[in-house]
Amino acid sequence: MKKVIIRKTEEIENWRRNINNEINFIPTMGNLHDGHIKLISTAKNDNSNVNLVSIFINPLQFDNKLDLENYPKTIDNDIKISFSNGADAIFIPSNEDIYPPNNENIKFLKAPKKLSSALCGLNRMGHFDGVCTVVYRLLNIIKPKNLYLGEKDWQQLLILKNLILRKKLNVAIKSIPTQRDFDGIPLSSRNVHLSKNERKLISFFSSELLEAKKNFPQDKKIDLNQIIKKLLAKKISIEYLEHLHPHTLQKARLEDNISLLAGAIRCGETRLIDHVFLMKRRPIIAIDGPAGSGKSTATKLIAKKLKLLYLDTGAMYRALSWLMIKENINYKKEKNLQNILKGISIVFKSNTNSHQDVYVNNYCVTEEIRSQKISSIVSKISSIKEVREFLVEEQRKIGESGGLVAEGRDIGTTVFPHAELKIFLTASIDERAKRRKSDKNSKDSQEIDFHTLKELIKKRDFEDSNREISPLIKANDAIEIITDGYTINEVVDKIIDLYYDKIPKEAEIK
Ligand code: PAF
To answer: In angstroms, what is the span from residue 131 Cα to ligand 1's centroid?
Structure first.
């Protein structure tokens, strides 16, 4: 594809018509550094869309005239960097193009108070209004499918997510983690203004934040005053240092697993921001739903893509059912069930095919637990109070340090009620029966006729949803996804997008 530089708003329309493809949009104010390069190359590697980088120093987001005048301008170099890292087109509009005088169609937007009055909003009057105005204008001109933004400007990212929701724009935000320099400070166009000594001070500030992040999983708390004291001792001028909820930007609460530690400092004439995400444990995704909703396949793929542990709780109930049959345990009458359960071990082990095997008392039961015989009793066995209590406890032990995606029927409601993302995956009975019929792992289902299979699924749904203990219900805060008509990859991508909507990419980076 021929690489182009577009300078006029009207030319964008023509260009879009000719490319016949979706657009990845990377807005910048120029003076591109490795952070921007990461944005451009991520967009290039994400999909086969066309990548458009805009370079426009937006006067509306500067509350200080001198700051605007001093903003570094390196346009020739920016063009080279953009093209050599994956941009197909560069949009370099003039002020008049973006804000044509006397044009009534230009909307000057206000950022939402709740998000814009915290952190940087306190001292940068109108800054986020300016960002909303320019990005809304650019999105309307470019009409991209994806918008690439850095998590470095986390508050900006939240405000722009809110803008897209508010304006019901059909654009997906893709974010990249903060990129740091050799001395730990976040890459920023303004770093060019720093003297050696100022860099040292900022590096100290960043290392304090990174240290807090490292210690948080163990400490589970943060002492802001302690950090402030250390910064003041170095004569660092602090504009703010706050510990907040990462999405609402309200004060962090004790129960928040992920929180934001964000600060702004001044060094000479330059003002710099940095932040880290504090996590008590790694994130948990809970996926609940009825049999045949696509849960297992989706969960396995998500675990692989997000490098999370895959916790198949259904397999644990099946393994236990298998043992009950094998050992002739009369689970309905057994008085000593609790003690028997205590002696049972159920573990998952990765096998050579990079799948998972289930072992019960050291016996591999991966295949055998998928038989119709087990399917027909697992719901009954899983409704026994002692069984549930035993396995929920086991599951919680596995999930203590997080970093897993668990599938089942009561994950979001009972096992991990504090999971960061809860999904309720479902599909119509017809669709689920069709899937069961073509499931190679469910050999018996292939021999049962379609009508009987549907009746069996209905019965299983009824039993699961009406049992007294931990029935199958959607958690209040779960997101329901009906998978009829969607491919499994579409479902997985949707869940991964929802995950990154909740979990900043950089939260998981050491
Ligand atoms: O983050 C930036 O560089 C700017 O705020 C943006 C998003 C390009 C809008 O001018």
So the answer is: 6
